Amino acid sequence: MFERRLYYHIDWALLIAIFALCALGVAMIYSTTSDPTRGNSHLYVTQLYAIGIGAVAMVCTLSIDYRTFTDKSHLIYIGLLALLLYVLFLGTVQMGARRWIPLGVFNLQPSEFAKAGVALVLAKYFGETRGMPSWTDLAIAGGLTCLPLALIAKEPDLGTAVTLIPVFLAVAYLAGMQMRILGYMALSLVLIAPVAWKFALKDYQKSRISTFIDPSQDAKGAGYQQIQARITVGSGGLKGKGYMQGTQGQLRFLPVAHNDFIFSVLAEEQGFAGVLVALGLYLFVILRSLEAARLAKDRLGSYLVLGVLASFTFQVVYNITMSAGLAPVKGLTLPLMSYGGSSMIATLAAFGLVLNVRMRRFTN
Amino acid sequence: MAFHEERRRVGLRLSVLQYLVVVLFSALAISFWYLQVVQHDRFQEMADNNHQRTLPLRAPRGVLFDRDGRVLVENRHSYSISIVREHTQDLNRTISLLSKVLGLQEASVREIVDRHRREPSYRPITIVQDATLAQVAAVTARRLSSELPDVVVQQVPTRQYPETLAAHLFGYVGEVNDAQVSNADDLKSGDIVGQSGVEKVYNAMLMGEDGAKRVVVNSTGREIRTLEEIPPTEGKRLQLTIDYDVQKAVEDAFAVSGFNGAAVVLDPSNGEVLAFASLPAYDPNAFAAGIDRNTWSALTTDEDRPLNDRAIQGTYSPGSTFKMAVGLAALEEGIITPDFKVFCPGHANFYGRDFKCWKRGGHGAVDLRHAIEQSCDVYFYTVGNMLGVDKINKWATLLGLGVKSGIDLPNERQGLVPSTEWKRQRMKEKWYAGETISVSIGQGQVSVTPVSMAVYMATLANGGTRVTPHLLKAMDEGTGWKPIPPPAPQSKIDIDPDKLQAIRDGLWMVVNAAGTGGTARIVGKDVAGKTGSAQVISNAGRMAARTTKNLRDNGWFVFFAPRDNPKIAGVIFAEHGIHGGNAARISHHVLDTFFAKQDGRPLPPPPTDLKLDLSDAMAQPHERAAREEQDR
């Protein structure tokens, strides 16, 4: 199954960049969570385990031909839906949401795996259709995306649910969706927005958006995190305050610094220089992956790579924007860096697929 | 063909995505550059404000010493509990929880917070100035459990008055009020400043300079570490002219007497105040850590007016103690000689009115010395009449009566010695010669403050120098004691020693011969003095009022000693003391203590019984007959 020559086609550069980001993440987690006054925290150890498991998952998704995965993608998809349903009714409740399946050592968050699952099923669907996707194709693909999206949104975990939309859009776009359809979608979104504001959004979501527009209206409440994020990033300056020398993250003015706001802490402690390094690594990972999509032997491979990459890129861009206080605060993690086992494992597994596609570009 | 077409399209669209990603990342990089480089300073400042807190370290006020170096006023450590609103999420919750923890009324805590609401949020709002250990423990426990992270417990120096002596002299301290803050640029809200007495007058010296501690706090307000500490500078140490032993003697004797009143004891050579008292007093310690409302209202509504400084603010009729001024005026104006005699039949007629001597039987023929000794009213009616009110006014003023003494205490009031000019300006009326008769024995409109009486006696003692009473002897800025030169005298005249001697002799006889001040006698010390009693209300009015204590006569005793080359001069004013003799009994203990200390003898123990004469004058109408006449 794993032919020896495939080994030489592994994209080592991409792999190194990915693990460099993981290492950066672990370093920042260590910085924000090891507070001597609060007793030692071992979150960074947990993160290292997650990276280890993620690496194993990566080897798995790398070793088996991606076409095997896409062939079985309907099964994977159904299994995923089952897990999401299970979570919805029997999952553990934390912070008001039912997102996790307790697995003893850590909690599994199936929604993180939904991104790769949807990428697989959409890649297969569009890979099998020839020519420009018809309205029916788009509707079916949209339905396939919306089903898990609805289940995740119901948890509620709107942030993760929304990351599925770029997967659909990116794969459909690459599959040849006409630009004017994209235009229609944008138009209908604009029309739906006020209705959604009135009926669909919960109060806390509305306040998040309104405080984004004017953070000072609720400086101690919802706007607090946004203001603190800007202060954190801005005070970092060109060279940063030094590793573990940040005041905003270290003294907890910034909440969940090891999770949603890990990039802010990086910006504070390593400064603009550190930001450029991290942005460069992410950009490299994304461009290198797009390269894999271009090099893919078949459309299936391109779609799969892009599907995986779409949610990743969306999350990276959104989280980094948010960490500078330039976007409303949403519980979206920064893939590869933020603390979180499921996210780490799912992301590494997904990049296994990307490497897989590139590696097998010459095989038949 | 279709395949090729498709391949091309995928490539094209991938390129579009590539450029999109590059554009997005460039936008991110530019945003971060803008925040981190362009706006860095602004955010750096905000971050510093976030995590750094400056806590004031209150400077201890300067310690006050007596003239022998004994500590009179010092500082003790107390704990203050304050709210720092900087990181407060819910002020109402903090207020209600804190008042519960401290056992205070929520409304009163809220009121304190409201009063300081407009101040910067990093400045602590002190809720309790002098917290009990139980309060400190309760708050600290809740700070550790992060229930009250915005509450700060600080160790602060608090003024301490070890013995509640000389309350009005020291005054008291209190939180600076808004008017004071706006009048001085070096004061800020929350500062503790002197509000009366020496604490107020020498506040600038005593205050010292507050230090500051910059600490790092986390988002819950807990202090993580200290960045910088500027220690406070203690206020300057001041040495007062007060003699602790004399001061204590005054207050001990007053305490035994049960009278309210005032006392001022001076060194007649330079005006140094050896003792200064006003009674009833208050406990300055009650103010030191912020006075509570009940104590304050009790003090302000007390009929005895304990906050009133009788020694410098009370104006009273001097009665017979005024006679030396009249006598000296007559001598100096050349109207009489010491041997000038008047025959006293017990009354005399002036301008068609009959004025009685206090001694109904009369004193017979008396010269000046005996007139002072016997306090013969008819003698001074006669002399005063010969002088006229303006000459009396001139000499009384030169001796320090009817003017401010210039003592270094706030809010001194001025007494009054009438003159034709005064009456014309004030009453728009002509002075009637008949009015001079009452003035001659210190009745009528004459009023004096106890401190001016002390100056009066010091001037007689030192031969004409109207010294300025003062309290500050030396100052120590940390480099050793530096004497403070005494203030210049208010005026200086050269009294003919022979004439002055006649007055002194008369005063000596009051105490050492057949006079009314015998109770102040100290063997070998030649105490010279004069009693006086002055009515608070007319006898007729008093009969009508039918009340007891607070309408009884005031008793005076003014003194200096020894007669020749005096070392001490002063006044004891016994409010409602009935007789000057009772004031003289108080003076005896004071003088006895002073001379015992000077001679190196053991100090006399506090008296247990002053053997006061509390017989009411109303029971002896013959003694008061003359006065009754005046009161019409």
Annotation keywords:
heterodimer; A: 364 residues; mainly alpha; 3-stranded antiparallel sheet; 15 helices; 69% helix; B: 632 residues; alpha+beta; Penicillin-binding protein 2a (Domain 2); Beta-lactamase; 2 domains; 5-stranded antiparallel sheet; 24 helices; elongated; disordered C terminus
Please tell me about this protein's structure.
The complex is a heterodimer of chains A (364) and B (632). Chain A has 364 residues and is mostly helical. Chain A has 15 helices and 3 strands. Chain A has one domain. In chain A, strands 1-2-3 form a 3-stranded antiparallel sheet, with helices on one face. The longest helix of chain A is centred in the C-terminal third of the chain and has 34 residues. Chain A is globular and about 55 Å long. With 632 residues, chain B is an alpha+beta fold. Chain B has 24 helices and 23 strands. In chain B, strands 2, 3, 4, 5, 10, 18 and 19 form a 7-stranded mixed sheet that branches. Chain B has a 5-stranded antiparallel sheet with strand order 12-11-23-22-21, sandwiched between helices. In chain B, a hairpin with a 5-residue loop joins β2 and β3. Chain B is elongated, with a radius of gyration of 35 Å. The N and C termini of chain B lie far apart (137 Å). The interface between A and B is large, with 45 and 38 residues.
